Structures are given as structure tokens and as C-alpha cells.
Amino acid sequence: MSSRRITRNTAGELRNLAEKRIERLLKLAGEVFRQYPERADRYVELAWKIKTRYNVRLPSHLKRKFCRKCLSFWVPGFSCRVRLHSGRVNITCLRCGRVVRLPYRPRALSGKKRKAVNRSQLS
Ligand SMILES: [Zn+2]
After folding, report:
1. Are the beta carbons of 62 and 91 closer than 8 angstroms?
2. How far apart are the CA of 115 and the centre of ligand 1, in A?
3. Residue ranges near ligand 1 (ion) with Cβ within 5 Å
4. What pairs with residue 80 in β-bridges?
5. What percent of the chain has pLDDT over 90?
6. How many CA atoms lie within 13 A of 68 on its CB side?
7. What average pLDDT does range 29-35 have in this prediction?
């Protein structure tokens, strides 16, 4: 058997490594953003290349770190706008205008409040 063949197991290992690298790059991007915003964008570009190469699915905490369209690093108040709207986090990219809507779990309401919410939705 050829040693270069990528088995399912090694593919998983590579993906793990790729995910670690992506996380590290995005962390670095956050560290350098204030001084060198262009460098932060470059780190995002590299992270994106790794992501596409190894077919990694990004966890939601990484999805809100950069724009998939223009690959700019997102810092709320600087390069993106964050708003909460009907159970979702809406992130607007201030460079290209792309909007990403990620669901979040609203705080569990007490029984009374939940009834009140349901009633207001009916009317
Ligand atoms: Zn963008």
C-alpha cells in the first residue's frame, strides 16, 4: 500500500490540524488588527485558503470573525456592524455590505413571560 495515500483517518487528522491553523491565524489577525489592518486581512486570506484546501467546516465562533465575500477581518465597530434581530445576530460587513445572519439561543423565558410573548405573536 502506498504511504502517500490519504486514508480517512489521516484526512481527519489533517483537518484537525487545518482547524488549529485557522484558529491561530484568526487569533493573530485579532492581535495585529489595530496596528496593521491590512495584515489582519492577509491572515484571513491565508486562513480561508487553508479552509478551502482541507474542506474544514468553521465553528460558529469563527464564522463571525471575517467576511466570506471580501475576506476582511471583522472587528465590531470598525469593520462590521453587529445587531440582534429576531433571534439572530446580524453582522454587516462595512467594506462590501454583506450581511450574515447567525441564530442564537435567546435566554430561556419563564413560563409567564413565554405566554405573554406567544400572545403578542398571535395578535
Ligand atoms: Zn465583506
Report:
1. no
2. 40
3. 67, 69-70, 93, 95-96, 98
4. 76, 93
5. 64
6. 11
7. 96
Domains of the chain: 8-122 (1.20.5.420)
Ligand 1 center to residue 37 CA distance, Å?
A: 14
Cell of 27: 487569533
18 CA from centroid of ligand 1 (Å): 23
CA 86 to ligand 1 center in whole angstroms:
23
d(CA 90, CA 82): 6
Query: Which set of grid coordinates corresponds to residue 73?
Result: 477581518
What value does the mean pLDDT take over residues 110-121? 56
